[in-house]
Amino acid sequence: MQKITQAYLEDVLQKSRPYSQKGKVASYIPELSEADPTTLGVTLIECGGESYSAGDHEQTFTLQSISKVLSLLLALEDQGKDKVFSIVGQEPTGDPFNTVEYLETEAKDKPFNPMVNSGAIAVSSMIKGRNVDERFGRILDFIRQISGNPNLTLNEEVYQSEKKTGAHNRSLAYFMQSIGILGPEVEDILDLYFRFNSIDVTVHDLANIGCLLANRGKRPGRNDWLVSEKYVETAVTIMFMAGMYNASGEFAIEVGFPSKSGVSGGIMSLVPGQMGIGVIGPAIGNRGNSTAGVQVLKTLSDDLQLHLF
Ligand code: DON
């Protein structure tokens, strides 16, 4: 079997670069359209062991939908499973991440799952705090802790850009208010959602978060649990079923480990008990996932035999 070395990782990255041409940088959030589509970087951290990085691994980018896993974990810690899943479903979807249609035609009382926009907006309403600042402060602290990076901050430009152009997410939120999923604080919930999508990270941060989840919520090499094991189990299962949007089935078959993508081109992955991986490649395909990033993960999965089944 292939051994992980620096040279090997560089080679995987080089071979995956052409795949960025199959995608385009997201432009529906204006600030994201400024990213360089040829950027490609990866960090792989073996739990409690070596760390390897290649390419543009120091590049910062915003969490976007990767934050959906983190807000879910905090909401589960705050409210427990029964309460969270009383307002959001647990089923995968073949529909796009920002679908409006499903809410009206089939869901009636619940968005599909916490990984689509409507589900994540509903989950945001479950995060405790007296106001948006306090709630955001709690989620930022939580992400700083589980990534091991106390310097993570909000990207003000991306946040303002999302807030200004977030009509689609507003329509989802107001529809959810009309059917009783959200209360009167819709604008506050949206504000919180836009903020935690706009936290700047690098692939190192994503790989560290992946490692913590791969280690079931316990900090590798230490004895302290940063997230409850039972909630890690829930979040990772949902990542496996729905983390790559309406490409989750194909990704599960081809790559075979839990991952979560975002429109900025980041992907956070984990191989249970083994490693965390972070990838950035801002050119995304028509289902919202980094085209070169997915290729990096597929190659790693094949060469290192990481598929879970
Ligand atoms: O709400 C949005 O549309 C973005 N802030 C995040 C969406 C996202 O990352 C979906 N990803 N593929």
Automatic annotation (TrEMBL):
Say which species the protein is native to.
Answer: Planococcus lenghuensis
Listed binding positions for substrate are 65, 117, 162, 169, 193, 245, 263
What is the protein's given name? Glutaminase
Q: List UniProt keywords, sorted A-Z.
A: Acetylation, Hydrolase
Task: Identify the EC number(s).
Answer: 3.5.1.2
Record family assignment: Belongs to the glutaminase family.
Any one of the GO BP annotations:
glutamate biosynthetic process
EC top class, as a word? hydrolase
Catalysed reaction(s) here are: L-glutamine + H2O = L-glutamate + NH4(+)
Self-association and partners: Homotetramer.
Do the record's keywords include Hydrolase?
yes
- Output the PANTHER family linked to this UniProt entry: GLUTAMINASE (PTHR12544)
A GO molecular function annotation here is: glutaminase activity
